[in-house]
Amino acid sequence: MAASIEFHRREILSRLKDPRRGDGSTSIPLEIRWDPLTGRSARLAHFGAIKAQALDYEFYRRPEVIGHCPFCGPDREAQTPSFPRDLIPEGRLHRGQALLVPNLFPYDMHSTVCILTREHVVPLPGLTPEILTDGLGLGLEFWRRLQERSASGSTFPLMGWNYMPPSGGGLVHPHHQYFLIEEPGNRFRLEFEASASHAGVGDYWSALAARERELEERFIGSTGAWTWLAAFAPEGVLGEIIAILPGAWDLDHFDEESVASLSEGLIRCFRYFESASIHSFNAALFLGPRGQKHFAAHLRLVPRTFLNLRDMAPDVNFLKMLMDEPVSVLRPEELAAQIRPFFRESEHQRK
Questions:
Q1: Nearest Cα to Cα of residue 237 among 44, 8, 14
Q2: Non-local CB neighbours of 295 within 8 Å, separated by 6+ positions
Q3: Domains delineated in the chain
Q4: What gap in Å lies between CA 197 and CA 204, rounded to an integer?
Q5: For residue 153, is pLDDT > 90?
Q6: How far apart are CA 290 and CA 249, in angstroms?
Q7: 10, HSE (Cβ side, Cα atoms, 13 Å)
Q8: Sign of the C-alpha dihedral, residues 252, 253, 254, 260?
Q9: Residue pair 132/126 in contact by the 8 Å Cβ criterion
Q10: pLDDT digits (tens, 9 = 90+) for 310-343
Protein backbone atom coordinates (compact mmCIF):
# COMPACT_ATOMS: atom_id res chain seq x y z
CA MET A 1 0.00 0.00 0.00
CA ALA A 2 1.44 3.35 -1.06
CA ALA A 3 1.34 6.42 1.15
CA SER A 4 -0.62 9.38 -0.23
CA ILE A 5 1.60 12.30 -1.27
CA GLU A 6 -0.10 15.66 -1.66
CA PHE A 7 1.59 18.90 -2.68
CA HIS A 8 -0.40 21.87 -1.39
CA ARG A 9 0.40 25.44 -2.42
CA ARG A 10 -1.29 28.81 -2.48
CA GLU A 11 -0.40 31.44 -5.07
CA ILE A 12 -0.67 35.09 -4.02
CA LEU A 13 -0.43 38.42 -5.86
CA SER A 14 0.74 41.51 -3.99
CA ARG A 15 -0.36 44.78 -5.70
CA LEU A 16 1.60 48.01 -5.38
CA LYS A 17 2.70 51.13 -7.25
CA ASP A 18 6.31 50.76 -8.27
CA PRO A 19 8.23 54.08 -8.67
CA ARG A 20 10.63 52.29 -11.01
CA ARG A 21 7.71 51.87 -13.41
CA GLY A 22 6.65 55.51 -13.37
CA ASP A 23 4.49 54.91 -10.32
CA GLY A 24 2.45 52.44 -12.32
CA SER A 25 0.52 49.67 -10.65
CA THR A 26 2.12 46.23 -10.69
CA SER A 27 1.41 42.79 -9.22
CA ILE A 28 4.15 40.68 -7.66
CA PRO A 29 3.66 36.91 -7.36
CA LEU A 30 4.59 34.81 -4.35
CA GLU A 31 3.65 31.40 -2.97
CA ILE A 32 3.03 29.60 0.28
CA ARG A 33 3.77 25.87 0.22
CA TRP A 34 3.21 23.16 2.82
CA ASP A 35 5.61 20.28 3.40
CA PRO A 36 3.82 17.07 2.31
CA LEU A 37 5.03 15.16 5.41
CA THR A 38 4.75 17.61 8.31
CA GLY A 39 2.48 20.38 6.99
CA ARG A 40 5.08 23.03 7.93
CA SER A 41 4.79 26.07 5.67
CA ALA A 42 7.42 27.87 3.61
CA ARG A 43 7.25 31.00 1.46
CA LEU A 44 8.56 31.55 -2.04
CA ALA A 45 9.12 35.25 -2.67
CA HIS A 46 11.61 37.88 -3.88
CA PHE A 47 12.16 35.73 -6.98
CA GLY A 48 15.60 36.43 -8.42
CA ALA A 49 16.28 39.23 -5.92
CA ILE A 50 19.00 37.42 -3.97
CA LYS A 51 22.14 35.96 -5.53
CA ALA A 52 24.89 33.92 -3.92
CA GLN A 53 27.80 36.12 -2.83
CA ALA A 54 31.42 35.39 -3.64
CA LEU A 55 33.58 34.14 -0.78
CA ASP A 56 37.22 35.12 -0.41
CA TYR A 57 38.91 31.87 0.64
CA GLU A 58 42.28 33.63 0.90
CA PHE A 59 40.91 35.84 3.66
CA TYR A 60 40.28 32.75 5.80
CA ARG A 61 43.83 31.51 5.15
CA ARG A 62 45.46 34.56 6.75
CA PRO A 63 47.30 33.64 9.97
CA GLU A 64 45.65 36.47 11.88
CA VAL A 65 42.22 35.16 10.80
CA ILE A 66 43.00 31.51 11.51
CA GLY A 67 44.32 32.26 14.97
CA HIS A 68 44.48 29.06 16.99
CA CYS A 69 42.79 26.10 15.31
CA PRO A 70 42.94 22.84 17.29
CA PHE A 71 42.17 20.87 14.11
CA CYS A 72 45.33 22.07 12.34
CA GLY A 73 48.89 20.89 12.37
CA PRO A 74 50.69 17.64 13.12
CA ASP A 75 49.79 17.80 16.83
CA ARG A 76 46.01 17.91 16.36
CA GLU A 77 45.61 14.82 18.57
CA ALA A 78 47.38 16.60 21.41
CA GLN A 79 44.93 19.50 21.06
CA THR A 80 41.73 17.46 20.86
CA PRO A 81 40.01 15.34 23.52
CA SER A 82 39.76 11.55 23.46
CA PHE A 83 37.01 9.09 24.31
CA PRO A 84 37.03 7.13 27.57
CA ARG A 85 38.69 3.75 26.96
CA ASP A 86 35.54 1.86 27.96
CA LEU A 87 33.67 3.69 25.18
CA ILE A 88 36.24 3.78 22.35
CA PRO A 89 39.30 1.69 23.36
CA GLU A 90 41.55 3.48 20.85
CA GLY A 91 40.62 6.87 22.30
CA ARG A 92 40.07 8.35 18.83
CA LEU A 93 38.99 6.99 15.43
CA HIS A 94 41.12 7.47 12.28
CA ARG A 95 40.59 6.90 8.57
CA GLY A 96 42.67 8.62 5.89
CA GLN A 97 42.89 12.30 6.83
CA ALA A 98 39.78 12.02 9.00
CA LEU A 99 39.98 12.05 12.79
CA LEU A 100 36.88 11.58 14.98
CA VAL A 101 37.03 12.86 18.58
CA PRO A 102 34.60 13.93 21.29
CA ASN A 103 33.31 17.48 21.03
CA LEU A 104 35.02 19.56 23.71
CA PHE A 105 31.76 21.54 23.90
CA PRO A 106 29.14 18.75 23.58
CA TYR A 107 25.49 19.21 22.65
CA ASP A 108 24.44 15.79 23.97
CA MET A 109 25.82 12.78 25.82
CA HIS A 110 27.41 11.38 22.66
CA SER A 111 28.54 14.44 20.68
CA THR A 112 31.57 14.23 18.40
CA VAL A 113 33.58 16.15 15.85
CA CYS A 114 35.01 14.45 12.76
CA ILE A 115 37.89 16.54 11.38
CA LEU A 116 37.83 15.82 7.65
CA THR A 117 41.14 17.27 6.41
CA ARG A 118 44.53 18.44 7.55
CA GLU A 119 44.13 21.65 5.53
CA HIS A 120 42.36 24.49 7.33
CA VAL A 121 40.56 25.97 4.32
CA VAL A 122 39.26 23.54 1.70
CA PRO A 123 37.16 24.96 -1.16
CA LEU A 124 34.42 22.72 -2.55
CA PRO A 125 36.59 21.13 -5.29
CA GLY A 126 38.93 19.93 -2.54
CA LEU A 127 36.18 17.89 -0.87
CA THR A 128 37.03 14.71 -2.79
CA PRO A 129 35.12 11.40 -2.69
CA GLU A 130 37.88 9.98 -0.50
CA ILE A 131 37.57 12.79 2.04
CA LEU A 132 33.79 12.45 2.18
CA THR A 133 33.73 8.65 2.40
CA ASP A 134 36.44 8.60 5.08
CA GLY A 135 34.53 11.11 7.20
CA LEU A 136 31.13 9.50 6.72
CA GLY A 137 32.68 6.08 7.23
CA LEU A 138 34.09 7.11 10.60
CA GLY A 139 30.70 8.48 11.61
CA LEU A 140 29.09 5.17 10.63
CA GLU A 141 31.66 3.26 12.69
CA PHE A 142 31.06 5.52 15.70
CA TRP A 143 27.28 5.08 15.45
CA ARG A 144 27.54 1.30 15.22
CA ARG A 145 29.93 0.94 18.13
CA LEU A 146 27.84 3.07 20.47
CA GLN A 147 24.45 1.79 19.37
CA GLU A 148 25.56 -1.71 20.30
CA ARG A 149 26.09 -0.38 23.83
CA SER A 150 22.78 1.49 24.03
CA ALA A 151 20.55 0.13 26.77
CA SER A 152 17.36 1.69 25.41
CA GLY A 153 17.77 0.72 21.76
CA SER A 154 15.94 3.93 20.82
CA THR A 155 18.86 6.15 19.90
CA PHE A 156 18.81 8.31 16.76
CA PRO A 157 21.97 8.64 14.63
CA LEU A 158 22.44 12.21 13.40
CA MET A 159 25.17 13.92 11.36
CA GLY A 160 25.40 17.71 11.07
CA TRP A 161 27.67 19.80 8.87
CA ASN A 162 28.24 23.59 8.83
CA TYR A 163 30.52 24.49 5.91
CA MET A 164 32.08 27.96 5.59
CA PRO A 165 30.37 31.25 6.58
CA PRO A 166 27.57 32.05 7.08
CA SER A 167 26.66 28.44 7.96
CA GLY A 168 27.24 28.96 11.68
CA GLY A 169 30.35 26.81 12.08
CA GLY A 170 32.72 27.90 14.83
CA LEU A 171 35.73 26.94 12.68
CA VAL A 172 36.06 26.96 8.90
CA HIS A 173 38.30 23.88 9.12
CA PRO A 174 36.08 21.20 7.46
CA HIS A 175 34.39 18.95 10.00
CA HIS A 176 31.24 16.93 10.56
CA GLN A 177 29.46 16.44 13.86
CA TYR A 178 28.07 13.01 14.77
CA PHE A 179 25.54 12.33 17.49
CA LEU A 180 23.73 9.34 18.92
CA ILE A 181 20.79 10.84 20.76
CA GLU A 182 17.65 9.78 22.58
CA GLU A 183 15.90 13.15 22.22
CA PRO A 184 15.91 13.84 18.47
CA GLY A 185 15.08 17.56 18.57
CA ASN A 186 12.13 19.44 17.14
CA ARG A 187 12.47 18.95 13.38
CA PHE A 188 13.78 15.39 13.69
CA ARG A 189 10.97 14.43 16.10
CA LEU A 190 8.29 16.05 13.95
CA GLU A 191 9.39 14.13 10.86
CA PHE A 192 9.75 10.87 12.79
CA GLU A 193 6.27 11.12 14.29
CA ALA A 194 4.68 12.23 11.01
CA SER A 195 6.32 9.29 9.22
CA ALA A 196 4.81 6.95 11.82
CA SER A 197 1.38 8.48 11.19
CA HIS A 198 1.75 7.81 7.46
CA ALA A 199 2.80 4.21 8.10
CA GLY A 200 -0.85 3.13 8.26
CA VAL A 201 -1.21 3.88 4.56
CA GLY A 202 2.30 2.92 3.49
CA ASP A 203 5.93 4.02 3.44
CA TYR A 204 6.00 7.80 3.02
CA TRP A 205 9.65 8.08 2.00
CA SER A 206 9.52 5.48 -0.78
CA ALA A 207 6.25 7.00 -1.98
CA LEU A 208 7.75 10.50 -2.03
CA ALA A 209 10.79 9.34 -4.00
CA ALA A 210 8.59 7.46 -6.49
CA ARG A 211 6.06 10.28 -6.88
CA GLU A 212 8.73 12.96 -7.44
CA ARG A 213 10.46 10.71 -9.96
CA GLU A 214 7.15 10.30 -11.76
CA LEU A 215 6.36 14.04 -11.79
CA GLU A 216 9.96 14.97 -12.80
CA GLU A 217 9.41 18.58 -11.68
CA ARG A 218 11.65 18.40 -8.61
CA PHE A 219 13.43 15.10 -9.27
CA ILE A 220 17.18 15.66 -9.65
CA GLY A 221 18.71 12.22 -10.14
CA SER A 222 20.02 9.10 -8.44
CA THR A 223 23.33 7.86 -7.07
CA GLY A 224 23.20 4.17 -6.22
CA ALA A 225 20.02 3.62 -4.19
CA TRP A 226 19.77 7.32 -3.21
CA THR A 227 17.07 9.53 -4.77
CA TRP A 228 17.85 13.27 -4.94
CA LEU A 229 15.09 15.90 -4.96
CA ALA A 230 14.55 19.62 -4.61
CA ALA A 231 12.36 20.05 -1.51
CA PHE A 232 8.79 21.14 -2.32
CA ALA A 233 8.70 23.50 0.71
CA PRO A 234 12.39 24.49 1.06
CA GLU A 235 14.16 25.56 4.23
CA GLY A 236 16.79 27.81 2.62
CA VAL A 237 16.73 31.13 0.81
CA LEU A 238 18.43 29.40 -2.16
CA GLY A 239 16.34 26.24 -1.82
CA GLU A 240 16.89 22.84 -0.25
CA ILE A 241 18.02 19.46 -1.56
CA ILE A 242 16.81 16.16 -0.10
CA ALA A 243 18.46 12.77 -0.67
CA ILE A 244 16.41 9.71 0.34
CA LEU A 245 17.60 6.14 0.82
CA PRO A 246 14.30 4.22 0.67
CA GLY A 247 14.09 1.20 2.95
CA ALA A 248 17.16 2.20 5.00
CA TRP A 249 15.33 2.21 8.32
CA ASP A 250 18.33 2.07 10.64
CA LEU A 251 22.05 1.32 10.78
CA ASP A 252 21.40 -2.31 9.85
CA HIS A 253 20.32 -1.04 6.41
CA PHE A 254 23.08 1.57 6.03
CA ASP A 255 26.48 0.34 4.87
CA GLU A 256 29.69 1.40 3.12
CA GLU A 257 27.93 1.32 -0.27
CA SER A 258 25.34 3.73 1.13
CA VAL A 259 28.20 6.00 2.21
CA ALA A 260 29.92 5.83 -1.20
CA SER A 261 26.72 6.61 -3.12
CA LEU A 262 25.86 9.46 -0.78
CA SER A 263 29.34 10.91 -1.24
CA GLU A 264 28.96 10.72 -5.02
CA GLY A 265 25.71 12.69 -4.86
CA LEU A 266 27.25 15.31 -2.59
CA ILE A 267 30.10 15.78 -5.06
CA ARG A 268 27.52 16.38 -7.82
CA CYS A 269 25.73 18.95 -5.68
CA PHE A 270 29.02 20.66 -4.86
CA ARG A 271 29.80 20.95 -8.57
CA TYR A 272 26.46 22.68 -9.03
CA PHE A 273 27.26 24.96 -6.06
CA GLU A 274 30.52 25.97 -7.73
CA SER A 275 28.69 26.81 -10.95
CA ALA A 276 26.20 28.94 -8.99
CA SER A 277 28.88 30.68 -6.84
CA ILE A 278 27.53 29.02 -3.69
CA HIS A 279 30.32 28.58 -1.12
CA SER A 280 28.51 27.67 2.09
CA PHE A 281 25.89 25.17 3.22
CA ASN A 282 24.28 23.32 6.10
CA ALA A 283 23.69 19.57 5.86
CA ALA A 284 22.19 16.94 8.14
CA LEU A 285 21.87 13.17 7.79
CA PHE A 286 19.00 11.57 9.72
CA LEU A 287 18.53 7.90 10.59
CA GLY A 288 15.89 6.25 12.75
CA PRO A 289 16.39 4.04 15.81
CA ARG A 290 16.89 0.32 15.39
CA GLY A 291 13.80 -1.78 14.75
CA GLN A 292 11.41 0.86 13.35
CA LYS A 293 10.24 0.65 9.71
CA HIS A 294 8.69 3.97 8.83
CA PHE A 295 11.51 6.57 8.96
CA ALA A 296 14.02 6.15 6.11
CA ALA A 297 17.54 7.55 6.11
CA HIS A 298 17.69 10.91 4.37
CA LEU A 299 19.98 13.90 3.99
CA ARG A 300 18.98 17.54 3.83
CA LEU A 301 21.31 20.05 2.18
CA VAL A 302 20.65 23.80 2.34
CA PRO A 303 22.83 26.33 0.46
CA ARG A 304 23.81 29.38 2.52
CA THR A 305 25.01 32.84 1.54
CA PHE A 306 25.28 36.42 2.70
CA LEU A 307 22.59 38.74 1.38
CA ASN A 308 25.33 41.27 0.69
CA LEU A 309 29.00 41.69 1.54
CA ARG A 310 28.69 45.36 2.55
CA ASP A 311 26.79 44.55 5.75
CA MET A 312 27.70 40.83 5.80
CA ALA A 313 23.97 40.25 6.23
CA PRO A 314 23.19 36.53 6.61
CA ASP A 315 20.34 34.85 4.77
CA VAL A 316 18.25 34.12 7.90
CA ASN A 317 15.92 36.71 9.45
CA PHE A 318 12.96 36.97 11.86
CA LEU A 319 10.70 34.90 9.62
CA LYS A 320 12.92 31.85 10.07
CA MET A 321 14.30 32.54 13.54
CA LEU A 322 11.09 33.59 15.31
CA MET A 323 8.25 32.33 13.10
CA ASP A 324 9.98 29.17 11.84
CA GLU A 325 8.81 30.26 8.38
CA PRO A 326 11.60 29.86 5.81
CA VAL A 327 11.70 32.00 2.67
CA SER A 328 13.18 30.90 -0.65
CA VAL A 329 13.87 33.15 -3.64
CA LEU A 330 14.25 30.17 -5.97
CA ARG A 331 11.41 27.87 -6.99
CA PRO A 332 12.25 24.21 -6.25
CA GLU A 333 11.43 23.29 -9.82
CA GLU A 334 14.07 25.75 -11.06
CA LEU A 335 16.62 24.46 -8.56
CA ALA A 336 16.06 20.88 -9.72
CA ALA A 337 16.47 21.92 -13.37
CA GLN A 338 19.78 23.64 -12.56
CA ILE A 339 21.25 20.67 -10.64
CA ARG A 340 19.90 17.86 -12.85
CA PRO A 341 22.60 18.12 -15.56
CA PHE A 342 25.32 17.32 -13.01
CA PHE A 343 23.55 14.08 -12.10
CA ARG A 344 22.82 13.14 -15.71
CA GLU A 345 26.51 13.47 -16.48
CA SER A 346 27.15 10.98 -13.67
CA GLU A 347 24.62 8.54 -15.11
CA HIS A 348 26.18 8.77 -18.60
CA GLN A 349 29.64 8.08 -17.16
CA ARG A 350 28.38 4.92 -15.43
CA LYS A 351 26.92 3.70 -18.74
A1: 44
A2: 191, 192, 195, 196, 205, 249, 286, 287, 288
A3: 8-350 (3.30.428.10)
A4: 9
A5: no
A6: 7
A7: 7
A8: positive
A9: no
A10: 888 899 999 999 999 999 999 999 999 999 999 9
